[in-house]
Amino acid sequence: MPNPHHYGLILAGGRGTRFWPRSRRRSAKQVLNVLGSRSLIQGTVERLRAVIPPERLWVLTNGYLRDEIVKQLPEIPARQIMAEPAQRNTAPAIGLAAHILQSIDPDAVMGIFPADHVIAKEARYRQLVRSAFRAAESGRIVVLGIPPRWPETGYGYIEFARGTAPGAQAIPIRRFKEKPDARTARRYVAHGRFYWNAGMFFGRARVLLGELRRNLPRTASLLAALPVFDDDEFGAALGQAFPRCENISIDYAVMEKASGVAGIACPEIGWNDVGSWNAVYELLPRDRDGNVLPKEAISQAAGGNYVDAAGKMVALLGVSNLIVIDTPDALLVASRESAQQVGDLVKMLEARHRDDLL
Amino acid sequence: MPNPHHYGLILAGGRGTRFWPRSRRRSAKQVLNVLGSRSLIQGTVERLRAVIPPERLWVLTNGYLRDEIVKQLPEIPARQIMAEPAQRNTAPAIGLAAHILQSIDPDAVMGIFPADHVIAKEARYRQLVRSAFRAAESGRIVVLGIPPRWPETGYGYIEFARGTAPGAQAIPIRRFKEKPDARTARRYVAHGRFYWNAGMFFGRARVLLGELRRNLPRTASLLAALPVFDDDEFGAALGQAFPRCENISIDYAVMEKASGVAGIACPEIGWNDVGSWNAVYELLPRDRDGNVLPKEAISQAAGGNYVDAAGKMVALLGVSNLIVIDTPDALLVASRESAQQVGDLVKMLEARHRDDLL
User: Fold this and answer.
1) In angstroms, rounded to a whole number, what is the distance separating the alpha carbons of residues B8 and B110?
2) What is the ipTM of this complex?
């Protein structure tokens, strides 16, 4: 049986511009079904169901996405799916959720989950989540560490206090490391004590609020002054207070400074942050030429391509390692190796004030 | 003043499958405006206007395209735009036109023109057409030879009886040469006496009919038995006779065997048969990265690409030398160097009975 004091906070405020042209302000990565029949946020909820039932899940997102998320997640009470009044990164969002949960349940323990990752080995993952919750009950903040599979420079790392083999035990963290340069990343991976920080944290609401008071006092006091969640004035008060909170991530604001942070060095759970169209390509089944194509597509001398063009005949001829994303109003053609730069195109559209395409 | 006995026959029965997905049975290459504001067949008519006014132009096409051509060429009397009852290559088509013109004007001299080529230097071209008509009045068949710019293996060649510099004089042809292999093509180009056969012929209707009787007697007698063009029975009789004609090109059936064929070795007239999307790319103005893109497209680290995607934002990232053709129901992504093989994709669609895309 799930523990009734365990709550989940799903952080769903990102824009996911690397998934343009399918991702737009109102259809960001987390609500897209890039990998199959359900969206990434629906997958996140399903994956957690046996540990945290939907009625104890909370979602923080932005005003563009809230309606879509409410539609996609009918089992979560709509009032628990909240639009942040301003984009303020993760620290104020987590503080807000901790504030609300603490007022609802003084024994609340929170798990914090990105909305838009995938995890292939769900049963094993749930065991780790249960272990992390248990470890957090003792008053520690607990983070999940993903064994690094390559020297990624796009992720933060966590350094365990001692060399450790993967397992379900929470052991002390020495330090949080921001995104490293390539040389440092290679050293981390060779070292054995460094794990990827996948942005999954666990802690008592009370403990998180205490860390916030210590490290981010302005945000903490703004949140502490809010009326109770049920109050009619709550929404208006939040709209006043939230934009005045610091715009900072929980990693910078709290985790790097908190004492008594522990981590679980996860065994392989098939974690993927689905960071680009190329990640989608790598996660999907391919044909014998290494293509991921719509049904009925035709191709000749073409390999390693990913094409998303719903309802249209796609024909490839003599091309390789391309990403092609076709939508009614925009068409992206990129090399797979430049998939990380798709956000640059979105910046160009912003510079041209093409709000119709954002 | 144009000579009132000079007539034009525009051959517009081709499918142009290399322009899929924009070319379809009802919108083949000749009626597309791949190069600007007018279609290729409209360009052909405009180019000839000062030599052959539209009222003396005839068009032979197929049943799929006739209505569109009638719409595009309102100045040509609709009855002169005829759908061949069956696809029988160029010899029966030219024979049919010669038969009709001979009955209308016993002094008719015909110029025969493909519908779907472009010629940049139109004034110079018209001078050559006038010269060819004059030379044909003496009873010869006259062909225009295009100075070869590279050892093309996709064209036929004409060999002049003697070395010749380009000019407006008709001089004897020794032989018609079918599409050569690469080695032979290189020899032709080095030789100086070989010119590309661009499919433009001139001759008295009477002379062409005589050659047809000699070289293709079945077709000649089937056509000779037709009622006069004005007769109500003409259409039905043609529907019976035409499918029984030989399916053969004028080159094979007549030109290779005819005596007294002369040619004009054209100076450079900017002729292009617009044989593929790559030819379109090469004919259009490019941006500084060598791209031909729709207005407002955005690109980064992309060069040498041709994109046709009307009304849609196009974004290119890290890709080069691609052909991308987007239509409401089909999307082609090809390398420029494989543009000649686009017809292979059309064959795949035929094999799958995808008539909706043909």
Assistant:
1) 6
2) 0.91
**A334 in contact with chain B, both atoms CB, cutoff 8 A:** yes
How confident is the model over A115-126, as pLDDT tens digits?
A: 999 999 999 999
Averaged pLDDT, A178-187: 93
The closest of B307, B303, B336 to B319, measured between CA atoms, is B303
Enumerate residues 288 to 307 of chain B having a beta carbon within 8 A of any beta carbon in chain A: 298, 300-301, 305, 307
Residue-level pLDDT at B92:
97
Cα B231 from Cα A177, distance rounded (Å): 91
Is B258 in the A-facing interface, judged by CB distances under 8 Å? no
Q: Which of A18, A24, A298 to mutate to test the interface with B (most CBs of B within 10 A)?
A: A298
Least trusted range by pLDDT, from B104-108, B149-153, B300-304? B149-153
What confidence tens digit (pLDDT) does each residue in A304-341 have? 999 999 889 999 999 999 999 999 999 999 999 999 99
Cα separation of A336 and A235, whole Å? Answer: 43
Pairing mode of beta strands B194-204, B109-114: antiparallel
Spatial CA neighbour of A156 closest among A94, A200, A198: A198
Residues listed for chain B: 358
| Domains of chain B, start order | 6-272 (3.90.550.10), 286-357 (no CATH)
Say how far apart CA B201 and CA B142 lie, in whole Å: 6
Q: Could you report the per-residue pLDDT of B251-297, keeping only the tens digit for each?
A: 999 988 877 899 999 999 999 999 999 999 999 999 999 999 999 99
Give yes or no for residue B163 having a pLDDT over 80: no
Pairwise CB contact (< 8 Å): A354 & B313: yes
**Any idea what DSSP says for residue A18?**
G
- Looking at the partner chain, which of A331, A341, A342 has a beta carbon nearest the beta carbon of B326? A331
Q: Cβ separation of A330 and B314 shorter than 8 Å?
A: yes
C-beta atoms of A317 and B333 within 8 A: yes
Q: Record the tokens describing residue B305, joined without a space.
A: 């690409």
